[in-house]
Amino acid sequence: MENIRIVADKTEEILQEKHIGMAYFTVSASEMREFNVEGGEFSLFRTLYDNELSITAYKDQKKGAVSINRLEETAIRDAVDTCLKSAESGVADSNHAIAPKQENEVFRQGVYEPDIDRLFERAREWMEDVKEQFPKIMVHDIVVSHTKRHSVYRNTNGTEFESFSGEYAVSFGFAGHEGDQTTSLCGSYFTTDSLEKPFMSMGSVKKDLQDAQDQLKTVSLTGKLEGTVILTPECLSEFLYGMIGNYVSDNAVLEKTSIWLNKLNEKVADERITILSAPFDERILCGQRYTQEGFKAQNYELIKDGVLKSFMLSLYVANKTGLERAKNTSYNLIIEGGETPYEEMVKSVKNGIIVGGFSGGQPSINGDFSGVAKNSFLIEDGKIKGAVNEVMISSNLAELLNHLIAISKETVENGSGVLPYMAFSNVVIAGK
Amino acid sequence: MLGDFISEKRTLFSTGVHTELRAQENRQRRVNLVAGNLTTNNRTETSGVSARVYKNGVYGFSSMAECSGQAAETVLKAATENAVFMDSHIGKEKGNYPQIPAGTVLLNKEVVDTEQKKYIEFARDLDDYIVKKYPKLSSRTVSISADSMEKRIITSDGYSGHIASPRAYVYLFLNSETAAGVPIELFCAAAGGFGNFEDIFTDPAMIYPKIDELYEKLMHKREGVYAEAGKKTVILGGFLSGMLAHEAVGHTVEADIVLGGSVAGPALNKRVASDLVTMVDYAHTTPFGPAPLPVFLDDEGTPAEDAVLIKDGILTGYMNSRETAEHFGMKPQGNARAWSFSDEPLIRMRNTAVLPGKDKLEDMIASVEDGYYLTDTVNGQADLTGEFMFGVSMGYEIKHGKLGRAILDTTISGVAFDMLKSVDMVSDSVIWSSSGFCGKKQIMPVGLGGPALRCQVMVGGR
Prior knowledge:
The complex is a heterodimer of chains A (432) and B (462).
Chain A: H1 4-17, E1 22-38, E2 41-59, E3 62-68, H2 73-88, E4 105-110, H3 116-133, E5 137-155, E6 160-178, E7 181-182, E8 186-192, H4 205-214, E9 224-231, H5 233-248, H6 250-254, E10 275-277, E11 300-304, E12 307-308, H7 315-321, E13 333-334, H8 342-347, E14 351-355, E15 357-360, E16 368-374, E17 376-380, E18 383-388, E19 392-396, H9 397-401, E20 404-413, E21 418-430
Parallel strand pairs in A: 4-6, 9-14
Antiparallel strand pairs in A: 1-2, 1-5, 2-3, 5-6, 6-7, 6-8, 9-21, 10-11, 10-13, 11-12, 14-17, 15-16, 16-19, 17-18, 19-21, 20-21
Helix pairs in contact in A: 1-2
Chain B: E1 18-34, E2 37-55, E3 58-64, H1 69-90, E4 103-105, H2 116-133, E5 139-155, E6 159-177, E7 183-194, H3 197-200, H4 208-222, E8 230-236, H5 238-250, H6 255-259, E9 279-282, E10 285-286, E11 289-290, E12 307-311, E13 314-315, H7 322-328, E14 336-337, E15 346-347, E16 351-354, H8 361-366, E17 370-382, E18 387-399, E19 402-406, E20 410-415, H9 416-419, E21 425-426, E22 431-433, E23 437-440, E24 442-445, E25 447-450, E26 453-459
Parallel strand pairs in B: 4-6, 8-17, 16-25
Antiparallel strand pairs in B: 1-2, 1-5, 2-3, 5-6, 6-7, 8-26, 9-12, 9-16, 10-11, 12-13, 14-15, 17-18, 18-19, 18-20, 20-26, 21-26, 22-25, 23-24
């Protein structure tokens, strides 16, 4: 890997030569090794060597940003010049800023050097486990990889953060298959720093396989009802991303389209809902340690006991709007387990569905959403009757958060988040 | 222009295996003006070299972020070692690809870099126009994006080539509120396509009519009503039928997806649509002119030609790589493409379209007693079963053969091979789009198109 500290020194020197008063940059070098399975068979082994230099510079409060992957001096000089030219063409805005000087720090996370033979064997073992334990599963694709990254961040206020990180990432795509019958594509994903355990025991992998196989038994749902949906942790994360994009993100606040714009420190959700953005949680692997603006990252509460505690804002939008910036810019979301065992949650549903995936249009700006409930099961009088397809659900993201029935005791940890099952009422469920 | 430092490395290719060596540079330029604030002013460039080696049914691949002969040698060695590792652990003992003729594809389009200043000035002009003409809008976003791929490819057997695919687009988002104060938004890719920014965008005034049209639609949507949930007769406008061609049918007939169990596996040579439906993945030229994003050569060295997927309602073929073409006894037609230098070629669509029919759009609308005319879409997804979903951002009720009120955002869904059998009218003109990226492990710019279709789908209203 490149000696990125030398590249960082050179970049800093050139920025100083150009008398740039406000700037930050990151230099990184990475190595990735990846095995692919396609159509149920091992197909590819990749080794990638990559670099990145990203520079953001301000000239007369005008911002420009450049990213390249070449690290020789001429490329750095060109990148700085291009960045400056872009900034000069920009729009002056007094709200552009970077963090004041922070204490320099070195971060080491995850497993830096991979055990490639072990990684391959774990993937092969998983394929064999699937054949033996889930004979009606057809493996569509597997991507298992290890990425190590060394990066150096510096800014013109004298802050330096250096980071060494490495993690294994594992994703599976599979479907139930019997004769000519195929279920929807299902998936499972996790990151880890350890290959001690078989992949079958990680995250929600085993349950996801069982659910896919169970989807071969379908029942029909006709007509329309207002009922309960239980969102699996995987599916819940999609809805949370929708909520963030529509209600608490930079654009939603800057454009004033968020319906929560004036609701800071007010109740926006059921009081049992607390959502943390927590890259420092011990269950999160290789979480964010610093923001691009140069702040050391911290955990924070997005919603606490149903009350909106923070927007997810950059320093620029925070300055622009007078609101507080987010204390990190990651998506490491955590909702702790609740009081209700998952089995009890299912038993309590009179009419509803368990939704394992959601294929929907982008939610409307106010949070209205509708889409197809994928990998889903019908519940009647507390019993799972079978899988359903061609079923659509619709509601509103903000309303959903106020129609909570229960939070499961069980949570799924996949290395990037910790989420439970959550049951919500008053959702329109439409069958054929 | 990307220099040639790889041709001389052909002598290093191992015998008895298939080898590809590719040098590539990608550029992306992006400007976002959000409510008049320049929130994005970015230029990104990535370049490097990669090698892929096919040995006995498995691949080794390696890439480096460096454009040099030394880097080419390093990745060739690493890719070969990776192929050997896989072969020794897996041992499929397949032979090599069937040979294809050798040849050369010459550079079709030079990538021209545009100064960032020009993008910003163009965007600010459009933003000024919007603010002055429509001051009551609650917000607006003007976004300009230009991306390009330039590649040099050499292969141990097959074509070599130097190819480039620049693309530029202007996107607009307008925001308002309904009378009840509910925020609404409408988006369009106002103009753009294959080519350099300066080839396409000579004057901001060319976009003004698109802004006016978008504003008018937004005002209709402001008065919009929720669609009624359930199975409905609809006229899918060209943007939606193009999305249908790509998402709901196209992905299920990519041969790697077929091998993963897609519904198209057992449907080959069977009826999957009404006989009014013919669908083709065009390479570079359509019967109506150049394809929106022409592809002349893929990254496995296969010269690109059209792939006929559905002919008069019968599923006739898949899109293939050289490996899957051999598996299915089909001809590779140039669908194996990679987005970045560090990406391996995957089976990708190029310009996928439903062909036009003979009906007039106005007759189609007049034929619907109670349904919807759906004109704009923001996204779409489908899966192995062909079950699809499209987000609909604009549409109108049809009552007694006449267009009625606009509808608010909704979603439609169906199962492609069921829904296509319900198509009973097809309009006589195609609308093309090439503004988005297809996502499948890697992103990839693609073209898609279609005529208006009358059919039955599920509408996800309230």
